[in-house]
Design brief:
single chain; TIM Barrel; 9-stranded mixed beta sheet; 9 strands
Length: about 230
Amino acid sequence: MKLYKYEIHAHTAETSKCSRISAVDLVRFYKSRGYAGLCITDHFLNGNTVVPEDLPWEERIELFYQGFEKAYLEGQRIGIDVFFAWESTHKGTDFLTYGLDKEWLLSHPDLLELTINEYFDLVHRDGGYIVHAHPFREAAYIDTIRLVPWKTDAVEVINASRPDFENKCADQYADNYNLIKVAGSDNHDGYMDRLAGIMTREPLKSIEEMVEAIRTGQFEIFVDYLSE
């Protein structure tokens, strides 16, 4: 049976300051690996973004959207689906937000003023879906590991960019709170020794279909070792 592979956590250099690969090259890479699609989850305006802080909200969102837009157009050209999402940050704790669009961002210029719980409630009210990315990531700038199980829809239990110990902690966390488990690469480079994502039996043609597949458990997680 054919399974359709999707990357759900990847960054473009056009928008994420920490990414080292252009949107076009990122999409071409996943096409070369036989993926059916990918989500662009660039760092939002409260994270490691290239977007200046001293611009009007509308201009900031337009600049933020450029990475996805270039990826989407290349995907249309070469035949791979590209979906829009983003990675929101709260004091070093990151959450992937799916199911909402640029117009939603434009209509909420107060997003950066919300508390973490207010943000989650607003996203959920409007039909969005939240995945806690690499919840046990350790770094010098992260002073506290923050878990929000009652507001989180799913947990990234495999992040291909993080060590196995952190991923095992994430997996146990998801088990303890009966949260849905997903996987992603957190790709900032294109080629990596391993990739991770989700597989479905049917192709997904929109971010809404992806969210529904995850919400209803109509997927499997996988790890793809490129170095083998």
